[in-house]
TrEMBL record:
It is a multi-pass membrane protein. One of its GO terms (biological process) is transmembrane transport. It comes from the Bacteria. Pfam families: BPD_transp_1. This is Sugar ABC transporter permease. The lineage of its organism: Bacteria, Pseudomonadati, Pseudomonadota, Alphaproteobacteria, Hyphomicrobiales. The keyword Transmembrane helix applies. Belongs to the binding-protein-dependent transport system permease family. It comes from Pseudohoeflea suaedae. GO terms for cellular component: plasma membrane. Keywords: Cell membrane, Membrane, Transmembrane, Transmembrane helix, Transport. It is found in: Cell membrane. Residues 72-287 form the ABC transmembrane type-1 domain.
Length: 296
């Protein structure tokens, strides 16, 4: 037993040695940058970092700023609705394609194509499509519904939902493909047994398929959550944070404070709050997902 462990340790030794500089560089950049950001969030840094300690003043100012509070509210609305609708729409589309319909490859390619576009391109496309004078609203009125009025990007109360539409259009195709791959990985005998027992297809999906696809759902949620950071691109392309500050998001607040407002201390404080939020979500999930398996 003891002779096997050294052999495993020295297996692919050249590859392991070659990867050391990259790993060290990544750790220094990531952990060093994180610590540096947290430390300077307690300073009064403006255009350049400076060691003038102000304690929690930057955090107090942050949570008393209406723009930051609106950005947090928008991110919560976008994040929750994005997760719910992406999972539901992606699963339903995958279930429809799982019926082995004709031209399945064509439909799958069409649905996946928006994911190949950047968020900036997606934002610009939907800025045009939702424009009341050029896009979908004008087409609907031209078809006879002259009273139709839908301009989410120009209405402060619903602007975040206009951004959500663009995000769903781009990301739902990938979620559909992940769900479809999970469904195709389920043993065909399960479907045969459900048909023999007379179980309707929708019950099979809900009570049998979904529980068996737990790893797929976890992977999907992680992908959706990672995409929440990139909502910055959609906001900049579609609304620029407007009307007013109605569509602000935390990432845009950080960028504006650090590069436009020349207030590094405030930007560092906002970045640290985003980091803490991610840690609060990921650490318990990682503990439950991997710690429980290790104990088992």
């Amino acid at each position: 037993m003891s002779s096997k462990r050294p052999n495993q340790l020295f297996r692919n030794l050249n590859a392991k040695i070659a990867s050391v500089p990259m790993i060290l560089t990544a750790m220094v950049v990531f952990f060093g940058g994180t610590i540096w950001t947290i430390v300077y969030s307690f300073t009064n840094s403006k255009l350049l970092p400076r060691e003038k300690w102000v304690g929690f003043d930057q955090y107090e100012r942050l949570w008393n700023t209406n723009r930051w509070l609106i950005s947090i509210e928008n991110l919560l609305i976008y994040g929750i609705l994005s997760m719910v609708f992406s999972l539901v729409i992606g699963f339903v589309l995958a279930a429809l394609l799982d019926q082995k319909i004709r031209f399945e490859n064509t439909f799958r390619s069409i649905m996946l194509y928006p994911y190949a576009l950047s968020f900036i391109v997606t934002g610009l496309v939907w800025q045009w499509l939702l424009n009341p004078d050029l896009g979908i609203p004008k087409v609907v009125r031209a078809l006879g519904w002259e009273s139709f009025d839908f301009d989410p990007l120009y209405n402060a109360d619903i602007v975040i939902y206009g951004i959500l539409i663009a995000g769903l259009w781009q990301g739902t195709g990938l979620i559909m493909c992940l769900m479809l791959a999970g469904m195709r990985g389920i043993d065909e005998d399960i479907w045969k047994a459900s048909r023999v027992d007379g179980i309707p297809a929708w019950k099979t999906y809900i009570f049998i398929v979904i529980p068996m696809m737990r790893p797929v759902f976890i992977t999907t949620l992680v992908i959706i959550a990672s995409g929440l950071v990139r909502v910055y691109d959609l906001v900049v392309a579609q609304t620029g944070g407007g009307p007013g500050i109605a569509s602000e998001v935390p990432a845009k607040y950080v960028y504006d404070m650090m590069f436009l407002g020349q207030n590094l201390g405030q930007g560092f404080a906002a970045s640290t709050m985003m980091l803490i939020t991610v840690a609060i979500i990921l650490i318990p999930w990682a503990y439950l997902e991997f710690g429980g398996k290790r104990r088992g």
